[in-house]
Amino acid sequence: MALGPIHCGSFLLLSAAVLLLVATISAPVIHNISFLDITTGSSKATFGVFGYCSNIIGSDTCSERQIGYNIADVTGNLTDYTYVNNSLENVTKAFILHPIACGIAFLSFLIALCSDHLGFLFAAFVALLAFLVSLVVMIIDFVVFGLVKHEVNVHTTASADFSAAIWLVLAATIILFFSTFVVCFSCCTNRRRVRDREYQAAPMRQGRWWHRA
């Protein structure tokens, strides 16, 4: 059986939720997954949603999992560059939107998978909400990590580069954008199929009624 729009929409929503989940479990949960990598000599730091991991001269350590952390302070310890930005730590608290966007996307997937008729419309609304949350946190990601990346590359000999997690969030945001329209389209096409079946069944019911008479 060919996949209809609702199946494609459900698949897209699940894909977006998985991508956001992988980004959420970045450093310090899984230190190999990060939004930003800073490398200088044999030392390296990776930054994620709930903290960071650093390997300085062979000593591998990770921060505690927390909501909000001081990126500038970690960068200073690694590169010996004093970069003071007191607002960054407060902004990183918004990284909590990553798991929230993931949860909303997965909820939308469940609704789309189990719904019928107008339930698709509600799933599209939830998918739109997931897209908006993901869009906001994606912008925050690029602003925060982009600022740190610029400061490190301009003022130090270290190398700072975006890593996999930030691109996963970007991909998830794009997928959520398109899945919103796919699921909404499913609502329209499903209602039309129901009307067509009812229209085709009406003459048959009428014929059987006259036959019984």
From TrEMBL:
Transmembrane segments: 95-113, 120-145, 165-188
Record key words, sorted: Membrane, Signal, Transmembrane, Transmembrane helix
Principal location listed in the UniProt entry: membrane
Bilayer topology: Multi-pass membrane protein
Keyword Disulfide bond: no
InterPro entries on file: pH-response_reg_palI/RIM9, SUR7/Rim9-like_fungi
Subcellular location: Membrane
Signal peptide positions (record): 1-27
Highest taxon, organism lineage: Eukaryota
Record's protein name: Pali-domain-containing protein
